[in-house]
Amino acid sequence: MPTETRLRRTFSDVLTTILATAACAACGGGGGDLPSSGGTSSGGSSGTSSGTSGTPGTTTYASACTTQKTFLEGLTTTPPIDGAVVRTEAAYPPLPAPAVDDGDDLWTSTQGDAAGSLCATASDKAACLDKVANYRVLPPTRAECNAQYGSVAPYDGRTCTASYVLYTRGDEIGVARSQGEQRALAAPFDTLEEARWAATTAGYSIVCGQGSAPKPVPDSEFRVAAGGGFDMKVREEKNCGKTTYDVTIHVDANGNVTELSRTDLGEEPSCMVAGRRPEGLCLDREPRGGVGPHFAAMATLEAASVVAFRRLHRQLAARGAPGELLARVRRAARDEVRHARRAAALARKYGVTPRRPEILPASVPTLLEIALENAREGCVRETYGALVAHLQVERAADPDVRAAMAAIAGEETAHAALSWDVAAWIEPQLTAAERARVAAERQDAFTTLARELAVAVEPSVRRAAGVPAPDEAARMLDGLAPLMLAGLVPLAA
Questions:
Q1: How many CB atoms lie within 10 A of CB 49?
Q2: Which of 36, 97, 369, 388 is 20 to 30 A from 157 via CA?
Q3: What does the radius of gyration of the chain's CA atoms come to, in whole angstroms?
Q4: d(Cα 87, Cα 112) in Å, to the nearest integer?
Q5: What are the φ/ψ torsions at residue 88 (nearest 5 degrees)?
Q6: Domain residues of the chain, as ranges?
Q7: Helix or strand or coil: residue 220?
Q8: What would the pLDDT profile of 352-365 be if each residue is shown by its tens digit?
Q9: What is the pLDDT of residues 162-220, one digit of tens each?
């Protein structure tokens, strides 16, 4: 049976189980999101209960994973606002390009996360909503726009972009452009959603443990500090340093984050599963929360995958790999260029501009080293990532995400199959001891990935992007275990 056919059948079986379980839960069969406790919040609606609050001076920690609300849904403001939305504007095509008048600069605006009801208390709601739809912060000329906001890579056909939170309060339309302005809007920070936002934008991870993981990870925790704000137990991950830390932080009433203590866990950090990571890829601390950062990280990893496949092509060509295999590697590199562009466009829709990957030079690997990297990045991580892409096609609430993943999922499945076929070509050339090392590498990568999948996923990301919750991710990986861990003979059967 061809490798890709085997993968598609396995994916279909796993997804059928996951989707059926979710449908059962939605019909009252149990599971689902945990409810938030009440708090006093505008949350985008005038003074209604929205955020998850706590008792001032609480001395014991509680799980930070009980809330399923986004930052905007848990946002409290004084005075209250009607509603808020993450908005992204873009204008000006890349140069060289036909000249456009300043009045015809291809300006567009898109909306991401939202909460409340914009213009709900305006004296003329229709007029207010019209102003919101046409609200523009970008300057009227290319030179001014680039000077103020900078020129970016034109993934979406525009070179000048701005992202911000737009809100309404009566007849007022306001914007919070920077993280500092958004902190000022939320202050005082008195809901868990706001504290989680402060922690994740500072680069820390909120972790929700899963007892089924090979090495269970405890929930991130919080308590309401006696002097205001929150104390939180979170994680920090540094990929270049290959280190993970348990960190205790304090989020003060103004949303500023202060580190209180840290413990080196001596573990490699988790990494988003997207594409094939090349040797030397650096992914230091990045903002973690929200849909925009999710797709920005995806875009960076997909761009890094282009390098990974180009390197793989050179390595295999130097060792006389079959022409058919080399052609598939070249095709995969071209696919990843498109994937990076699609993910970057989604990131910008939600207010984040992706950064280019930082990749250190790599030495020429041995055949065994190629096999080990392929086992880890291709046979485990890329195979799981392809399965998630198919789930996103079914579950993403954002139609733009569904459309993007519909194009990506099939190609990622082909990349996963390519990884297994590369393994089938390399491993007969290895010694028995070397093949045992490759099998052990797959097992280790599987165990590491299981631990990483226990990290909490923002509710907004689960909804918009359709990615699995930690418990679903664990079941999906378990469904792939027979294929991933059995080796090449069962795969080729």
A1: 14
A2: 388
A3: 24
A4: 6
A5: -125, 130
A6: 3-28+271-492, 54-70+190-264, 83-181
A7: coil
A8: 778 888 888 888 99
A9: 889 999 999 999 999 988 999 999 999 999 999 999 998 888 888 776 444 445 567 88
